[in-house]
Amino acid sequence: MHTFLFHRRTCIQKHTQKVSEILSMYHTHCLLLLLSGFLVLSHSQPGQEPDNTSNQTYKEVSQQNISSYQIASDNADFAFRLYHLIASKNSEENIFFSPISISISLAMLSTGAVGDTQTQILKGLGFNLTKVSEPEIHEGFRSIQHKIARPFTELQTSIGNILVLSQALRVLPDFDSAIESSYISTVLYANFGDKKAVIQLINDYVKEKTQGKIKEVISDLDSDVRMVLVNYIFFRGLWEKPFPSGLVSTGDFYVDENMVVKVPMMLQYNQKHWYLEDRHVPCKVLQMDYRGDAVAFFILPNLGKMNEVEKALSPGMLTRWHHLLQNRSLYKSVGVKFPKFSISTSYPLEGILPDLGFQNLFSPHANFSNMVRKVKLRLSKVVHKATLDVNEAGTEAAAVTVSSIAIKSAGHEIPYIEFNRPFFVVIYSPSSKSILFMGKVVKPKAPQSLD
Q1: Average pLDDT for residues 272-282, to the nearest whole number?
Q2: What domain range is 200 assigned to?
Q3: What is the C-alpha separation between 451 and 440, in angstroms, rounded?
Q4: What CATH number does the domain containing 180 carry?
C-alpha cells in the first residue's frame, strides 16, 4: 500500500504558460458547473482482477507517478482545509463530501482562467507555483483520474467530465485540447433555448456514466445559462470482510449528552482488520479494506473527545495512522459494531471557498477568457450536495457540486469497537493517493435501500 504523502521531485524542469486574449466586446453568459459522485460498498465477495496498466512503458508510468506524487500532498491539504471550514460552519451536523471531485472540477476550471483568476484557483487548491508548474499540475490530475478509473472485477470506478455549450458558443482550441488531454472530457453543443432538452441531455449522460445511480443532477437552469460543465465520479466497491447480513439488532446511538437515537446496528466479530488505539490522540482507528484499490478509515473519538480529535485531523495525522497500521501486529481479530445509517448534506461553497483563497472567482474581476472568446464570465455560486447510505449490504454515497458563473455575480477476548457515537470516515484510493470521500457522522437516520 502506498503512503499518503510524497516529497516533490525537484529535478523536474519548471514550465509556465500564459495565454492572454484581448476582448473586443463583452457579453455576459452563465456557466453551471456540476460535480457528481456515487459510492456503493457491497456485501458480496467475487474475485479480484489485476491492474491493467502493463501496456504502458516504464517511462510513461514513471512520469505519471512523479506528477501525481507532486500534487498528492497538496490535494490532501486542500481536503482537510475544506473539511475544517465546513465543520466550523456545521459543527453539530453531519459532514460528507468528495474532496477529489471538488479539486478536479476547480483544476479543470483553471485551464479556462487567465492571470490572477487562474493563480488564485491553483493556489487555493494548495499548489506552490514556484515548485510545481501548471502543466505538472494538470498532468498529475490526469494521472489520478486514470488511476481511479482502472478496471477491477469488484471495484468499478468511472470519472470524467462533460462540457455542454450553447450552439452559439465555441470553446477555444487550447482549452478544448487541455480538458480533453488532462480531464477525460467531452464537449457537446445544445440548444439552450430548450432548457428541458439540455437538462435531459445532462441527466441522461450522468445517469449512464454512473450506471443509473445518479438519476438527476439538475432539475432547472436559469434563463441566461449558456454552458454546463459536469464532473462526475462513480465508485462501487466491495468489502474484503463483509458484514453478515443476519447479525443486525437495534441499538443506541449517542448523538450528544442529551440526544440518543435508535438505529439498526450491524455486527462483525472475530474478523481480522487493521486496528489501533492511539496513545497520543484520544481515539480508535479502524481500517477496513475493499477488494481492489480502496480502503476506509473509521475514526472513533473517545468519550467526550470529539472536538479534540477533530482539531487534530490533518494530512499528517492521516499519514501517521496509515504508517502505524503498516505494523503487522495491528492486523488483528476485532469485534465491530457499526450502524446502518443515512446522511444527506448540502454546502454553499461560495461562502467557504473565499476563505481558501478563491476570491476573484466570485467577483467581476474573474477572467475566464481562455475558455470562450469574446465572453465575460464570473463565478456566482458553488453548491456541493452529498448523500451517504449504509446498511448490512453495503454503502451508497453520492455527491453533486453545482457552481454557476452568472450575470449578477463475543468468544475469547478480542478488541471491540462500537460506533455508537459520532465518528469520522475517510474513503481513500491508495494508488492515486486521493481522498474520494470524507466526513463526520453525527446524526444517523434510517438508511435507504440499495438497488
Answers
A1: 94
A2: 30-238+342-405
A3: 25
A4: 3.30.497.10
Q: Based on the domain organization, do 171 and 276 belong to the same domain? A: no
Nearest CA among 450, 399, 436 for reference residue 149: 436
Does residue 40 sit in the same domain as residue 163? yes
Q: What is the pTM of this model?
A: 0.79
Domain assignment present for residue 24? The answer is no
120 and 267 share a domain? no
Number of domains in the chain: 2
* pLDDT (0 to 100) of residue 34: 54
Q: How many CA atoms lie within 13 A of 331 on its CB side?
A: 7
% of the chain at pLDDT higher than 70: 73
Checking if the pLDDT of 225 tops 50, the result is yes
pLDDT, one tens digit per residue, over 97-138 is: 888 888 988 998 899 999 999 999 999 999 999 888 898 899
Distance CA(441)–CA(404), nearest Å, equals 29
Q: Residue 325: pLDDT above 90?
A: yes
For the chain, give the mean pLDDT.
76
All cell numbers assigned to 348: 454553499
Q: What is d(CA 334, CA 416) in angstroms, rounded to the nearest whole number?
A: 6
pLDDT digits (tens, 9 = 90+) for 108-119: 889 999 999 999
DSSP string for 335-376: EEEEE-EEEEEEEEGGGTGGGGT--GGGSTT---TTTBTT-B
User: Does 361 fall in a domain?
Assistant: yes
Residue 99's H or E segment, with its range, is helix 99-110
Residues 222 and 255 in one domain: no
pLDDT tier for residue 422 given thresholds of 50, 70 and 90: very high
Cell of 133: 508548474
Q: What are the residues facing 250 on neighbouring strands?
A: 264
Report whether 407 contacts 32 (CB < 8 A): no
Q: Note whether 421 and 395 are same-domain residues.
A: no
From CA 248, how far away is CA 212, in angstroms rounded? 29
C-alpha cell belonging to residue 38: 456515487
Same-domain check for residues 369 and 310: no
Q: Which CATH number belongs to the domain containing residue 262 in this structure? A: 2.30.39.10
- Whether the Cβ atoms of residue 441 and residue 423 lie closer than 8 Å to each other: yes
Q: Could you tell me if 351 and 334 lie in one domain? A: no
